[in-house]
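Intended use. Records like the one below are meant for learning the mapping from a protein sequence to its folded structure. Do not use them to infer anything beyond what is encoded.
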Amino acid sequence: HRSRRTAGLGGTTAACWPGQRGRSRHIGRCRALGPLNHCEVIASILKPFVSEANYWTLEHHPLFQTYFYGGQVGIDLNGRDVYRDSPYFERTAEFCGLYDEVSFDPDYPNEPRATFEPMVRRVLAKPPSSSTS
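Structure written out for the chain above:
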């Protein structure tokens, strides 16, 4: 069993170093700020700094995650299919399959949070998009 904190670091580790066990997406304490809606919290924080596609992926990834574990807890594995017509469906499914799913593995090694601070600072240093409100 993984804590929410280590699950987040596992996913971020995987996203930053694809194909390598042990490298991580969540900023700081998003799960602590919104344990039941961390997707909305992180998507809202990053919206002015990321593409529309990345924003959509962040906002919808929890539903896409259920494809991997939903059957074990009585949730429809294919709930994500309501978004099948979205231009971001495939990229979000791929993201969850490559990075989120492995973050629930209790044996997946994590990089320390400090590893990701320069990456987060780089993203947040960009001028915010004027098309967001």
